[in-house]
């Protein structure tokens, strides 16, 4: 859906939330994808030559990867090493000329840029609706700075508040058993657990790690996020979940009022 978008200037001051607006009489009409691109390009301004970068996955992160490749071609960046969070991003990065490596060779990542499916007021995230949550969490958990790029439609009052999926990556063995246990775990929140499938034949979606994904849908707030995280991970069939708690250091939000940048400054991961 297209929305009105005034011209703007963004402040780089290290405040918790900052944006300087310059309105024009005739607003520019931008699509949601164009808003994602604006947020992605702003995030790439954090990139410096010589960095090891975590390269995110998804429709928003794709713009950031394209921009990094463009700056490398123009000679405005050099000596960049990228660590992709999925096979899809690996292919994209190769196509735009970004040199790649992995966490074995570069266990400390300077900066990661990625999108998110939900962002709560405390900068906690839901990620993984694209299916890459495990590699994303491994790489983004190893970075010094994690910049999240979203459009304002991803903002929620609490995780799960969009009514869309909160993914859990599980081993394929006895997946119905694991899904049932996960649903019972959040019964009070009205949880429904569904195996992610694709195509008309309904075959299970398989991650880059050869696992399945159970999507959890909540009707109510699940409460203490750290407790929920621990409870999910205690199930033996679970590999990882899509809640990224306290990991984001900066969130860049593109919306109808311009770009807002929120920085983590002593904020906890709980509401």
TrEMBL record:
Its EC number is 5.3.1.6. Catalyzes the reversible conversion of ribose-5-phosphate to ribulose 5-phosphate. The keyword Protein transport does not apply. This is ribose-5-phosphate isomerase. Pfam families: Rib_5-P_isom_A. Coiled coil: none annotated. NCBIfam families: PRK00702.1 (NF001924), rpiA (TIGR00021).
